[in-house]
Design brief:
Layout: E1 2-5, H1 7-23, H2 27-45, E2 51-52, E3 55-59, E4 65-72, E5 75-83, H3 88-96
Parallel strand pairs: 1-5
Antiparallel strand pairs: 2-3, 3-4, 4-5
Helix pairs in contact: 1-2
Length: 97
């Protein structure tokens, strides 16, 4: 299955990269590499995850983040990457935009 990371999710990755990089130099790079590995696993796992807020939700392997996606015409479209520690109302609002 193909995987497409939409611009909104790319912006989320950049925001998270900056957050982790501000904490410790190199941490942002580690975050991005780990999340790309998780996203790559969606090639074979896309479509098996539980639904949340209108999207399927895959929890990242090493970080407290969720990858929100939809499978459309055999392609996994990644719509958002959000820190699970955020207020659920904020997440719902973010995903409804």
């Amino acid at each position: 299955m193909n995987v497409e990371i939409l611009p909104e999710a790319e912006a989320d990755l950049l925001e998270c990269f900056n957050f982790y990089e501000d904490q410790n130099e190199g941490a942002g790079r580690n975050f991005v590499l780990s999340l790309y590995a998780d996203i790559d696993r969606l090639r074979s796992l896309g479509g098996i995850h539980a639904w949340a807020f209108g999207y399927q939700q895959m929890i990242a392997n090493k970080y407290p983040h969720a990858i929100y996606y939809k499978v459309v015409d055999g392609t996994v479209q990644v719509w958002a990457i959000i820190d699970c520690r955020r207020d659920p109302d904020w997440i719902k609002q973010r995903l409804s935009q």
